[in-house]
Amino acid sequence: MIAAALDLERVPAHVACVMDGNGRWAQSRGLPRTEGHRAGEEALFDVVEGALDIGVEWLTVYAFSTENWRRPADEVRFLLDFNEDILLRRRDELHQWGVRVRFVGRRDQRVPKRLLGLMDDAIRLTEHNSRMTLAIAFNYGGRAEIVDAVRAVVSAGMRPEQITERTIARRLYDPEMPEPDLMIRTSGESRTSNFLLWGLAYSELYFTDTAWPDFRRGDLYEAIRVYQERERRFGRLAPNGAGPSNASVAASNGDG
Ligand code: IPE
Ligand code: IPE
Ligand code: MG
User: Fold this and answer.
1) DSSP labels for 36-63?
2) What residues does ligand 1 touch, defined as CB less than 6 Å away?
3) How far is Cα 207 from Cα 8, in angstroms, rounded to an integer?
């Protein structure tokens, strides 16, 4: 799949990726699971470049969930070290590409100080870039995010009747993050696994059997091609002329 087949006027502004299947990719090759995580780096940077090329404004990737601490200590250790390593080795490249790096997730004491420091360095280095925002979800859980937002609302002493959806949305980890238009999950699993629960309410979901280490920009473009064939209604009816079935639904509902 190449970018030329896409409608560049209708590229999703925010694409969110659950980078899944690293472990199985490695195991199916007789390698330790950690080699799958290592191989995922090339996929990530190819997708970042591919997203930049077609004008995606915001890319959020799930790197480590609040539930991933339940994995064997060795794998958790590897993932912490590997994320530090990637930040050190590749932040300048992201900066040169004009990418603004952000992180979403809980900054609790389980995240090593050195990693938090590298996250802050990457944020600071790239804060004035404007070609695309890359948000890395690290120690991220969608439920934890909503709990943290509710805590902030309570701390602010708000009364129940003052609380709206905006009250919560403004207190998510990155209030500037737009709601994802498209969520992609690799490796054949059809679930969100606690990713961006609030924002995904009306996102288009795309699942592929390709494992993350094999995913490349062409796969991103294929997901976007499928996305461009979908009709997003947000609870409304289809616009007039969208097709006979939709038109008759609209007519029977008296929507004009
Ligand atoms: C995704 O790949 C990376 C992380 C969750 C950190 P997995 O490690 O979940 O790989 P599988 O799903 O077990 O194959
Ligand atoms: C989701 O994948 C988390 C990341 C990709 C970082 P998991 O592999 O942890 O999800 P489950 O356990 O299959 O639901
Ligand atoms: Mg997995």
Assistant:
1) HHHHHHHHHHHHHHHHHHHT--EEEEEE
2) 19-24, 64, 68, 79, 187
3) 22
User: Residue 232 CA to chain centroid, in angstroms?
Assistant: 19
Does the annotation mark 194 as catalytic? Answer: no
> Beta-strand (E) ranges in 157-208?
182-185, 204-207
- Residue 74 CB partners (closer than 8 Å, separation 6+): none
**Is 108 an active-site residue?**
no
What's the pLDDT tens digit per position in 81-98? 999 999 999 999 999 999
pLDDT tens digits, one per residue of 127-168: 999 999 999 999 999 999 999 999 999 999 999 999 999 999
Q: Give me the catalytic one of 46, 68, 81, 121.
A: 68
pTM score of the predicted model: 0.94
What is d(CA 162, CA 153) in angstroms, rounded to the nearest whole number?
Answer: 10
Cα 222 to ligand 1 centre (Å)? 22
Q: Tell me which residue has tokens 């870039």.
A: 129
